[in-house]
Amino acid sequence: MPPIIDADKCVRCGKCVEICSEDVYYGSKTGEVPVITYPKECSHFAGCVHICPTQAVTLRIPLPMLLVYKPAEEVKAT
Fold first, then answer.
1. For the chain, how many structural domains are there in total?
2. CATH of the domain at 10
3. The whole model's pTM is what?
4. Which domain holds residue 25?
5. Were 28 and a residue from 20, 34, 76, 78 both cysteine, which residue would form a disulfide, CB within 3.0 to 4.6 Å?
6. Tens-of-pLDDT digits for all 78 residues of the chain?
């Protein structure tokens, strides 16, 4: 699932566009609210969420990814 941009919070700095290695925001320009051009390319590494100075970007993690997630401290060495 692609990131969600809150246009009211977005300051149009372009930091989310710059950090995205998957080109999800392809064609977006600094000074404009980013456009999600390729939503299926999102790898959910959340760089865009963390770099946003106004918390305008949120990310919905797909259910199958949540089901396989396990915190490192819960994983026991065999």
1. 1
2. 3.30.70.20
3. 0.75
4. 3-74
5. 34
6. 789 999 999 999 999 999 999 999 999 998 999 999 999 999 888 999 999 999 999 988 766 655 566 677 776 655
